[in-house]
Protein backbone atom coordinates (compact mmCIF):
# COMPACT_ATOMS: atom_id res chain seq x y z
CA UNK A 1 0.00 0.00 0.00
CA UNK A 2 1.28 3.50 -0.81
CA UNK A 3 2.55 5.80 2.01
CA UNK A 4 -0.39 8.16 1.43
CA UNK A 5 -2.98 5.42 1.96
CA UNK A 6 -1.09 4.12 4.99
CA UNK A 7 -1.26 7.59 6.57
CA UNK A 8 -4.92 8.00 5.65
CA UNK A 9 -7.05 7.03 8.66
CA UNK A 10 -10.10 5.55 6.93
CA UNK A 11 -11.80 4.70 10.22
CA UNK A 12 -11.69 8.34 11.27
CA UNK A 13 -12.53 9.48 7.75
CA UNK A 14 -15.76 7.44 7.73
CA UNK A 15 -17.11 9.58 10.58
CA UNK A 16 -16.97 12.72 8.42
CA UNK A 17 -19.65 14.09 6.10
CA UNK A 18 -19.65 12.45 2.64
CA UNK A 19 -18.73 15.80 1.07
CA UNK A 20 -15.59 16.03 3.24
CA UNK A 21 -14.65 12.44 2.40
CA UNK A 22 -15.00 13.15 -1.32
CA UNK A 23 -12.79 16.22 -0.92
CA UNK A 24 -10.03 14.18 0.77
CA UNK A 25 -10.20 11.36 -1.81
CA UNK A 26 -10.13 13.87 -4.69
CA UNK A 27 -6.66 14.96 -3.59
CA UNK A 28 -5.30 11.43 -4.10
CA UNK A 29 -3.99 10.19 -7.43
CA UNK A 30 -6.24 7.99 -9.57
CA UNK A 31 -5.00 4.61 -8.31
CA UNK A 32 -5.03 5.60 -4.64
CA UNK A 33 -8.48 7.18 -4.98
CA UNK A 34 -9.98 3.97 -6.39
CA UNK A 35 -8.41 1.86 -3.63
CA UNK A 36 -9.54 4.22 -0.87
CA UNK A 37 -13.03 4.41 -2.34
CA UNK A 38 -13.32 0.61 -2.39
CA UNK A 39 -12.53 0.50 1.33
CA UNK A 40 -15.60 2.59 2.18
CA UNK A 41 -18.79 0.80 3.36
CA UNK A 42 -21.43 0.12 0.68
CA UNK A 43 -23.99 2.81 1.54
CA UNK A 44 -21.28 5.40 2.23
CA UNK A 45 -19.82 4.74 -1.24
CA UNK A 46 -23.09 5.86 -2.81
CA UNK A 47 -23.26 9.05 -0.76
CA UNK A 48 -19.60 10.01 -1.32
CA UNK A 49 -19.82 9.28 -5.05
CA UNK A 50 -22.46 11.98 -5.58
CA UNK A 51 -20.06 14.66 -4.29
CA UNK A 52 -17.29 13.93 -6.80
CA UNK A 53 -17.09 16.01 -9.98
CA UNK A 54 -18.28 14.39 -13.20
CA UNK A 55 -14.83 13.44 -14.49
CA UNK A 56 -13.96 11.66 -11.22
CA UNK A 57 -17.33 9.87 -11.22
CA UNK A 58 -16.75 8.64 -14.77
CA UNK A 59 -13.20 7.58 -13.89
CA UNK A 60 -14.41 5.55 -10.88
CA UNK A 61 -17.20 3.81 -12.81
CA UNK A 62 -14.68 2.71 -15.43
CA UNK A 63 -12.26 1.40 -12.81
CA UNK A 64 -14.70 -0.31 -10.45
CA UNK A 65 -15.80 -3.88 -11.08
CA UNK A 66 -19.39 -4.59 -12.08
CA UNK A 67 -20.27 -5.87 -8.57
CA UNK A 68 -19.02 -2.74 -6.80
CA UNK A 69 -20.65 -0.48 -9.38
CA UNK A 70 -23.98 -2.30 -9.12
CA UNK A 71 -23.96 -2.10 -5.32
CA UNK A 72 -23.11 1.61 -5.35
CA UNK A 73 -25.75 2.56 -7.94
CA UNK A 74 -28.33 0.37 -6.24
CA UNK A 75 -27.92 2.21 -2.92
CA UNK A 76 -27.96 5.64 -4.53
CA UNK A 77 -31.01 7.93 -4.38
CA UNK A 78 -32.84 7.82 -7.76
CA UNK A 79 -32.62 11.59 -8.29
CA UNK A 80 -28.86 11.61 -7.62
CA UNK A 81 -28.41 8.65 -9.94
CA UNK A 82 -30.38 10.37 -12.72
CA UNK A 83 -28.29 13.53 -12.39
CA UNK A 84 -25.11 11.47 -12.75
CA UNK A 85 -26.41 9.62 -15.81
CA UNK A 86 -27.33 12.92 -17.50
CA UNK A 87 -23.66 13.83 -17.77
CA UNK A 88 -22.28 10.46 -18.85
CA UNK A 89 -21.71 9.10 -22.39
CA UNK A 90 -24.61 6.97 -23.67
CA UNK A 91 -22.58 3.75 -23.66
CA UNK A 92 -21.59 4.18 -20.00
CA UNK A 93 -25.20 4.96 -19.05
CA UNK A 94 -26.38 1.79 -20.78
CA UNK A 95 -23.74 -0.35 -19.09
CA UNK A 96 -24.49 1.16 -15.67
CA UNK A 97 -28.27 0.78 -15.92
CA UNK A 98 -27.94 -2.86 -16.93
CA UNK A 99 -26.16 -3.55 -13.61
CA UNK A 100 -29.19 -2.48 -11.58
CA UNK A 101 -31.84 -4.76 -10.15
CA UNK A 102 -35.07 -4.98 -12.19
CA UNK A 103 -36.86 -2.65 -9.75
CA UNK A 104 -34.15 0.04 -9.73
CA UNK A 105 -33.57 -0.36 -13.47
CA UNK A 106 -37.26 0.40 -14.05
CA UNK A 107 -37.01 3.51 -11.83
CA UNK A 108 -33.87 4.75 -13.61
CA UNK A 109 -35.31 4.28 -17.10
CA UNK A 110 -38.56 5.94 -16.06
CA UNK A 111 -36.78 9.07 -14.77
CA UNK A 112 -34.52 9.26 -17.82
CA UNK A 113 -37.61 9.06 -20.03
CA UNK A 114 -38.80 12.53 -19.01
CA UNK A 115 -37.70 15.64 -20.97
CA UNK A 116 -34.12 16.62 -20.16
CA UNK A 117 -34.87 19.95 -18.44
CA UNK A 118 -38.10 18.86 -16.74
CA UNK A 119 -38.48 18.78 -12.97
CA UNK A 120 -39.33 15.06 -13.21
CA UNK A 121 -35.64 14.32 -13.82
CA UNK A 122 -34.89 15.61 -10.31
CA UNK A 123 -37.61 13.74 -8.44
CA UNK A 124 -37.37 10.57 -6.38
CA UNK A 125 -40.14 7.93 -6.40
CA UNK A 126 -39.53 7.11 -2.74
CA UNK A 127 -42.01 8.84 -0.43
CA UNK A 128 -44.76 7.96 2.05
CA UNK A 129 -48.36 7.82 0.87
CA UNK A 130 -51.62 6.65 2.45
CA UNK A 131 -55.38 6.49 1.82
CA UNK A 132 -57.93 8.79 3.44
CA UNK A 133 -59.84 5.86 4.97
CA UNK A 134 -56.82 4.63 6.93
CA UNK A 135 -56.53 5.20 10.66
CA UNK A 136 -53.60 7.19 12.07
CA UNK A 137 -52.26 3.91 13.48
CA UNK A 138 -52.24 2.31 10.02
CA UNK A 139 -50.47 5.35 8.57
CA UNK A 140 -47.76 5.28 11.25
CA UNK A 141 -47.21 1.56 10.69
CA UNK A 142 -46.82 2.27 6.98
CA UNK A 143 -44.21 4.93 7.77
CA UNK A 144 -42.25 2.47 9.91
CA UNK A 145 -42.39 -0.10 7.12
CA UNK A 146 -41.29 2.12 4.22
CA UNK A 147 -39.87 5.26 5.87
CA UNK A 148 -36.25 4.13 5.79
CA UNK A 149 -36.13 4.27 2.01
CA UNK A 150 -38.09 7.53 1.70
CA UNK A 151 -36.18 10.66 0.72
CA UNK A 152 -37.88 12.72 3.45
CA UNK A 153 -40.59 12.30 6.07
CA UNK A 154 -41.75 15.93 6.14
CA UNK A 155 -45.13 15.08 4.64
CA UNK A 156 -47.39 12.10 4.13
CA UNK A 157 -49.24 12.21 0.81
CA UNK A 158 -52.88 11.15 0.62
CA UNK A 159 -53.99 9.50 -2.63
CA UNK A 160 -57.29 8.12 -3.92
CA UNK A 161 -58.01 4.74 -5.51
CA UNK A 162 -56.43 5.88 -8.80
CA UNK A 163 -53.33 7.11 -6.96
CA UNK A 164 -54.23 10.74 -7.61
CA UNK A 165 -52.92 13.18 -5.02
CA UNK A 166 -55.74 14.67 -2.95
CA UNK A 167 -53.88 16.14 0.05
CA UNK A 168 -50.60 16.32 1.93
CA UNK A 169 -50.31 16.14 5.73
CA UNK A 170 -47.35 17.32 7.77
CA UNK A 171 -45.79 14.51 9.78
CA UNK A 172 -46.04 16.56 12.98
CA UNK A 173 -49.81 16.83 12.58
CA UNK A 174 -50.00 13.09 12.10
CA UNK A 175 -47.93 12.33 15.21
CA UNK A 176 -50.10 14.56 17.41
CA UNK A 177 -53.37 12.93 16.31
CA UNK A 178 -55.22 10.15 18.10
CA UNK A 179 -54.38 6.69 16.68
CA UNK A 180 -58.07 5.85 16.23
CA UNK A 181 -58.80 8.89 14.08
CA UNK A 182 -58.85 8.54 10.31
CA UNK A 183 -56.55 10.32 7.88
CA UNK A 184 -59.61 12.04 6.41
CA UNK A 185 -60.24 13.81 9.74
CA UNK A 186 -56.90 15.64 9.29
CA UNK A 187 -57.45 16.57 5.66
CA UNK A 188 -58.31 20.01 4.27
CA UNK A 189 -57.90 19.02 0.58
CA UNK A 190 -55.46 21.88 0.04
CA UNK A 191 -52.00 21.07 -1.28
CA UNK A 192 -49.25 22.30 -3.58
CA UNK A 193 -47.71 20.20 -6.33
CA UNK A 194 -45.50 20.29 -9.40
CA UNK A 195 -46.27 18.57 -12.72
CA UNK A 196 -43.85 16.21 -14.41
CA UNK A 197 -43.64 18.39 -17.53
CA UNK A 198 -42.88 21.59 -15.60
CA UNK A 199 -39.48 23.11 -16.35
CA UNK A 200 -36.90 23.33 -13.61
CA UNK A 201 -36.99 27.13 -13.68
CA UNK A 202 -40.76 27.06 -13.08
CA UNK A 203 -40.27 24.62 -10.21
CA UNK A 204 -37.67 26.93 -8.64
CA UNK A 205 -40.24 29.73 -8.73
CA UNK A 206 -42.77 27.52 -6.94
CA UNK A 207 -40.29 26.58 -4.20
CA UNK A 208 -39.33 30.24 -3.71
CA UNK A 209 -42.93 31.46 -3.78
CA UNK A 210 -44.29 28.99 -1.24
CA UNK A 211 -41.10 28.49 0.80
CA UNK A 212 -41.36 24.69 0.81
CA UNK A 213 -38.68 22.14 1.71
CA UNK A 214 -40.30 19.42 -0.42
CA UNK A 215 -43.03 19.31 -3.05
CA UNK A 216 -44.87 16.37 -4.65
CA UNK A 217 -44.74 15.79 -8.40
CA UNK A 218 -47.89 14.66 -10.23
CA UNK A 219 -48.63 13.65 -13.80
CA UNK A 220 -50.87 15.70 -16.10
CA UNK A 221 -53.80 13.64 -14.78
CA UNK A 222 -52.90 14.33 -11.15
CA UNK A 223 -51.33 10.94 -10.37
CA UNK A 224 -48.61 11.15 -7.70
CA UNK A 225 -45.31 9.95 -9.18
CA UNK A 226 -42.60 11.40 -6.93
CA UNK A 227 -41.29 14.22 -4.78
CA UNK A 228 -38.59 16.88 -5.18
CA UNK A 229 -36.65 18.20 -2.19
CA UNK A 230 -35.08 21.63 -1.77
CA UNK A 231 -31.61 20.04 -1.83
CA UNK A 232 -32.16 19.11 -5.47
CA UNK A 233 -33.63 22.54 -6.25
CA UNK A 234 -30.71 24.31 -4.57
CA UNK A 235 -28.25 22.48 -6.83
CA UNK A 236 -30.31 23.53 -9.85
CA UNK A 237 -30.39 27.17 -8.69
CA UNK A 238 -26.61 27.11 -8.40
CA UNK A 239 -26.26 25.71 -11.93
CA UNK A 240 -28.71 28.24 -13.38
CA UNK A 241 -27.06 31.21 -11.69
CA UNK A 242 -23.61 30.06 -12.79
CA UNK A 243 -24.85 29.84 -16.38
CA UNK A 244 -26.39 33.32 -16.22
CA UNK A 245 -23.23 34.84 -14.74
CA UNK A 246 -21.12 33.27 -17.49
CA UNK A 247 -23.45 34.57 -20.20
CA UNK A 248 -23.54 38.01 -18.66
CA UNK A 249 -19.74 38.02 -18.53
CA UNK A 250 -19.66 37.72 -22.31
CA UNK A 251 -19.14 34.01 -23.05
CA UNK A 252 -21.18 30.96 -23.88
CA UNK A 253 -22.29 29.00 -20.81
CA UNK A 254 -20.02 26.07 -19.89
CA UNK A 255 -21.58 22.61 -19.63
CA UNK A 256 -18.96 21.57 -17.05
CA UNK A 257 -17.14 23.47 -14.33
CA UNK A 258 -14.18 25.69 -15.24
CA UNK A 259 -11.63 23.14 -13.98
CA UNK A 260 -13.25 20.28 -15.93
CA UNK A 261 -13.72 22.16 -19.21
CA UNK A 262 -11.02 21.26 -21.79
CA UNK A 263 -8.80 24.14 -22.93
CA UNK A 264 -9.99 24.07 -26.55
CA UNK A 265 -13.64 24.08 -25.46
CA UNK A 266 -12.97 27.02 -23.15
CA UNK A 267 -11.26 28.96 -25.95
CA UNK A 268 -14.07 28.18 -28.41
CA UNK A 269 -16.80 29.38 -26.08
CA UNK A 270 -14.94 32.59 -25.29
CA UNK A 271 -13.69 33.27 -28.81
CA UNK A 272 -17.14 33.27 -30.46
CA UNK A 273 -18.41 36.12 -28.28
CA UNK A 274 -15.09 37.97 -28.35
CA UNK A 275 -15.17 37.88 -32.15
CA UNK A 276 -18.66 39.38 -32.23
CA UNK A 277 -17.59 42.11 -29.79
CA UNK A 278 -14.44 42.74 -31.82
CA UNK A 279 -16.45 43.21 -35.00
CA UNK A 280 -18.73 45.56 -33.06
CA UNK A 281 -15.78 47.60 -31.84
CA UNK A 282 -14.62 47.94 -35.45
CA UNK A 283 -17.64 50.18 -35.91
CA UNK A 284 -16.06 52.47 -33.31
CA UNK A 285 -13.07 52.91 -35.62
CA UNK A 286 -15.46 53.61 -38.49
CA UNK A 287 -17.25 56.25 -36.40
CA UNK A 288 -13.95 57.93 -35.57
CA UNK A 289 -13.02 57.87 -39.25
CA UNK A 290 -16.29 59.64 -40.06
CA UNK A 291 -15.33 62.47 -37.69
CA UNK A 292 -11.71 62.50 -38.82
CA UNK A 293 -11.84 66.16 -39.92
CA UNK A 294 -13.29 67.30 -36.59
CA UNK A 295 -10.59 65.41 -34.69
CA UNK A 296 -7.85 66.85 -36.94
CA UNK A 297 -9.21 70.38 -36.46
CA UNK A 298 -9.67 70.09 -32.68
CA UNK A 299 -7.20 67.47 -31.48
CA UNK A 300 -8.15 68.27 -27.90
CA UNK A 301 -11.47 66.45 -28.45
CA UNK A 302 -9.60 63.16 -28.84
CA UNK A 303 -8.29 63.47 -25.27
CA UNK A 304 -11.74 62.85 -23.86
CA UNK A 305 -12.82 59.94 -26.06
CA UNK A 306 -11.82 57.22 -23.50
CA UNK A 307 -13.54 59.17 -20.73
CA UNK A 308 -16.73 59.64 -22.75
CA UNK A 309 -17.21 56.11 -24.10
CA UNK A 310 -16.17 54.33 -20.88
CA UNK A 311 -18.73 56.34 -18.88
CA UNK A 312 -21.49 55.31 -21.27
CA UNK A 313 -20.42 51.67 -21.24
CA UNK A 314 -20.18 51.60 -17.45
CA UNK A 315 -23.64 53.11 -16.98
CA UNK A 316 -25.09 50.66 -19.50
CA UNK A 317 -23.44 47.69 -17.77
CA UNK A 318 -24.80 48.81 -14.41
CA UNK A 319 -28.35 49.11 -15.76
CA UNK A 320 -28.18 45.75 -17.56
CA UNK A 321 -26.91 44.02 -14.40
CA UNK A 322 -29.73 45.43 -12.27
CA UNK A 323 -32.48 44.58 -14.76
CA UNK A 324 -31.25 41.08 -15.67
CA UNK A 325 -31.03 40.13 -11.99
CA UNK A 326 -34.47 41.61 -11.25
CA UNK A 327 -35.91 39.61 -14.16
CA UNK A 328 -34.15 36.44 -13.01
CA UNK A 329 -35.81 36.57 -9.58
CA UNK A 330 -39.17 37.53 -11.18
CA UNK A 331 -39.13 40.99 -9.63
CA UNK A 332 -39.67 42.40 -13.13
CA UNK A 333 -41.56 41.07 -16.14
CA UNK A 334 -42.19 42.21 -19.72
CA UNK A 335 -45.14 44.31 -18.61
CA UNK A 336 -42.82 46.45 -16.44
CA UNK A 337 -40.78 47.87 -19.33
CA UNK A 338 -42.47 51.28 -19.23
CA UNK A 339 -41.94 51.59 -15.48
CA UNK A 340 -38.26 50.69 -15.91
CA UNK A 341 -37.82 53.10 -18.82
CA UNK A 342 -39.23 56.05 -16.86
CA UNK A 343 -37.10 55.20 -13.84
CA UNK A 344 -33.92 54.72 -15.88
CA UNK A 345 -34.44 57.94 -17.86
CA UNK A 346 -34.50 59.86 -14.58
CA UNK A 347 -31.57 57.84 -13.24
CA UNK A 348 -29.62 58.42 -16.46
CA UNK A 349 -30.19 62.17 -16.38
CA UNK A 350 -29.18 62.45 -12.72
CA UNK A 351 -26.09 60.25 -13.17
CA UNK A 352 -25.19 62.17 -16.33
CA UNK A 353 -25.47 65.49 -14.49
CA UNK A 354 -23.15 64.20 -11.75
CA UNK A 355 -20.51 62.94 -14.18
CA UNK A 356 -20.98 65.92 -16.52
CA UNK A 357 -20.43 68.36 -13.66
CA UNK A 358 -17.28 66.51 -12.58
CA UNK A 359 -15.99 66.44 -16.19
CA UNK A 360 -16.68 70.16 -16.65
CA UNK A 361 -14.99 71.11 -13.36
CA UNK A 362 -12.02 68.91 -14.15
CA UNK A 363 -11.32 70.82 -17.39
CA UNK A 364 -11.80 74.25 -15.77
CA UNK A 365 -9.65 73.41 -12.72
CA UNK A 366 -6.90 71.93 -14.88
CA UNK A 367 -6.96 75.05 -17.07
CA UNK A 368 -6.89 77.49 -14.15
CA UNK A 369 -4.22 75.55 -12.26
CA UNK A 370 -2.02 75.35 -15.35
CA UNK A 371 -1.94 71.55 -15.44
CA UNK A 372 -3.01 71.64 -19.11
CA UNK A 373 -3.71 74.42 -21.58
CA UNK A 374 -6.99 73.84 -23.42
CA UNK A 375 -6.71 77.22 -25.13
CA UNK A 376 -9.06 80.15 -25.14
CA UNK A 377 -12.12 77.95 -25.58
CA UNK A 378 -11.56 75.85 -22.45
CA UNK A 379 -14.99 76.83 -21.08
CA UNK A 380 -16.75 75.68 -24.27
CA UNK A 381 -14.75 72.45 -24.29
CA UNK A 382 -15.80 71.85 -20.69
CA UNK A 383 -19.45 72.41 -21.58
CA UNK A 384 -19.10 70.07 -24.58
CA UNK A 385 -17.69 67.29 -22.41
CA UNK A 386 -20.29 67.94 -19.69
CA UNK A 387 -23.31 67.83 -22.02
CA UNK A 388 -21.85 64.85 -23.90
CA UNK A 389 -21.57 62.91 -20.64
CA UNK A 390 -25.21 63.68 -19.82
CA UNK A 391 -26.34 62.40 -23.21
CA UNK A 392 -24.09 59.34 -23.30
CA UNK A 393 -24.78 58.22 -19.72
CA UNK A 394 -28.52 58.64 -20.37
CA UNK A 395 -28.24 56.60 -23.57
CA UNK A 396 -26.11 53.93 -21.87
CA UNK A 397 -28.54 53.60 -18.96
CA UNK A 398 -31.53 53.41 -21.30
CA UNK A 399 -29.87 50.86 -23.60
CA UNK A 400 -28.67 48.66 -20.75
CA UNK A 401 -32.12 48.58 -19.17
CA UNK A 402 -34.16 48.00 -22.34
CA UNK A 403 -32.06 45.36 -24.12
CA UNK A 404 -32.97 42.60 -21.60
CA UNK A 405 -36.69 43.34 -22.20
CA UNK A 406 -36.16 43.20 -25.97
CA UNK A 407 -34.37 39.84 -25.72
CA UNK A 408 -37.11 38.38 -23.53
CA UNK A 409 -39.74 39.63 -25.97
CA UNK A 410 -37.90 37.77 -28.75
CA UNK A 411 -37.87 34.60 -26.64
CA UNK A 412 -34.15 34.82 -25.84
CA UNK A 413 -32.37 34.66 -22.49
CA UNK A 414 -32.04 38.22 -21.06
CA UNK A 415 -28.71 37.16 -19.53
CA UNK A 416 -27.19 37.20 -23.02
CA UNK A 417 -27.38 41.02 -22.87
CA UNK A 418 -23.91 40.81 -21.38
CA UNK A 419 -22.04 43.78 -19.95
CA UNK A 420 -19.43 43.63 -22.76
CA UNK A 421 -22.21 43.59 -25.38
CA UNK A 422 -23.92 46.66 -23.89
CA UNK A 423 -20.57 48.44 -23.51
CA UNK A 424 -19.69 47.78 -27.17
CA UNK A 425 -23.04 49.12 -28.35
CA UNK A 426 -22.70 52.27 -26.25
CA UNK A 427 -19.08 52.79 -27.39
CA UNK A 428 -20.14 53.15 -31.01
CA UNK A 429 -23.21 55.28 -30.41
CA UNK A 430 -21.42 57.29 -27.72
CA UNK A 431 -18.87 58.58 -30.22
CA UNK A 432 -21.66 59.76 -32.51
CA UNK A 433 -23.36 61.58 -29.62
CA UNK A 434 -20.05 63.14 -28.49
CA UNK A 435 -18.99 64.51 -31.86
CA UNK A 436 -22.51 65.62 -32.76
CA UNK A 437 -22.67 67.72 -29.57
CA UNK A 438 -19.10 68.96 -30.18
CA UNK A 439 -19.93 70.00 -33.74
CA UNK A 440 -22.95 71.89 -32.49
CA UNK A 441 -21.31 73.68 -29.54
CA UNK A 442 -17.87 74.37 -31.05
CA UNK A 443 -19.04 75.38 -34.52
CA UNK A 444 -17.38 78.63 -35.52
CA UNK A 445 -14.71 78.32 -32.83
CA UNK A 446 -12.54 75.20 -32.87
CA UNK A 447 -14.54 73.58 -35.70
TrEMBL record:
Keyword Magnesium: yes
Major location (coarse): membrane
GO molecular function, one term: metal ion binding
Keywords: CBS domain, Cell membrane, Magnesium, Membrane, Metal-binding, Transmembrane, Transmembrane helix, Transport
Name this protein carries in UniProt: Magnesium transporter MgtE
PROSITE patterns per the UniProt record, alphabetical: CBS
Membrane topology, as annotated: Multi-pass membrane protein
Protein task: Acts as a magnesium transporter.
Compartments (UniProt record): Cell membrane; Membrane
One GO CC annotation: plasma membrane
Superkingdom, natural source: Bacteria
Organism this protein belongs to: Pontibacter ummariensis
Transmembrane regions listed in the UniProt entry: 297-324, 345-365, 377-398, 419-442
Family, as annotated: Belongs to the SLC41A transporter family.
Amino acid sequence: MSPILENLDLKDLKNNHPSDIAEVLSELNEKERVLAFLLLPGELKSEVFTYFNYSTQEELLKKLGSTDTAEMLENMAPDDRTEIFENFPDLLIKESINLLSPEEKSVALNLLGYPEKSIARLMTPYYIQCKKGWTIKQALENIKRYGKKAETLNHVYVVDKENKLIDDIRIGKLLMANEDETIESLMDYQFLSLTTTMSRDEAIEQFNKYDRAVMPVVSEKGVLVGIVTFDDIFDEIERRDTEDIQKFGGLEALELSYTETPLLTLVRKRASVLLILFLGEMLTASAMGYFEEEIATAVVLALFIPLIISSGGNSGSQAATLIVRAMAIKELGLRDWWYVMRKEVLSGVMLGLILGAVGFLRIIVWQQAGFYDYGEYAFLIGLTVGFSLIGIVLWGTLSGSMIPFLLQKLGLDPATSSAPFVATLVDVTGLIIYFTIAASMLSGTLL
